[in-house]
Amino acid sequence: MKATLEQSTTVSLREQIIAKAWSDPAFKAALVSNPKAALKQYFELDLPEEMKLIVAEEKKDQLMFVIPPSPSEYAQDLIVTEEAW
């Protein structure tokens, strides 16, 4: 199954990955130990080399909360300098 980051299906890529991890212990182990390689092997998904991917298994007695970058961090990426031209 070839997947892309812009995939527009009724079931999101994230949901497909979670469902596969629930149903396939080998995939789940590979996903936790080497996420990029697992996504390439099972979903034919190539992530950029500079992108870091962290996969953690949430336990019944845990709640994980991810804090995204602040909007000001994104704003810095949008500033165009004279050198950029």
From TrEMBL:
<dbReference type="InterPro" id="IPR036648">
    <property type="entry name" value="CN_Hdrase_a/SCN_Hdrase_g_sf"/>
</dbReference>
<dbReference type="InterPro" id="IPR004232">
    <property type="entry name" value="CN_Hdrtase_a/SCN_Hdrlase_g"/>
</dbReference>
<dbReference type="GO" id="GO:0046914">
    <property type="term" value="F:transition metal ion binding"/>
</dbReference>
<dbReference type="Pfam" id="PF02979">
    <property type="entry name" value="NHase_alpha"/>
</dbReference>
<protein>
    <submittedName>
        <fullName>NHLP leader peptide family natural product</fullName>
    </submittedName>
</protein>
<dbReference type="InterPro" id="IPR022513">
    <property type="entry name" value="TOMM_pelo"/>
</dbReference>
<keyword id="KW-0479">Metal-binding</keyword>
<dbReference type="GO" id="GO:0003824">
    <property type="term" value="F:catalytic activity"/>
</dbReference>
<feature type="domain" description="Nitrile hydratase alpha/Thiocyanate hydrolase gamma">
    <location>
        <begin position="5"/>
        <end position="78"/>
    </location>
</feature>
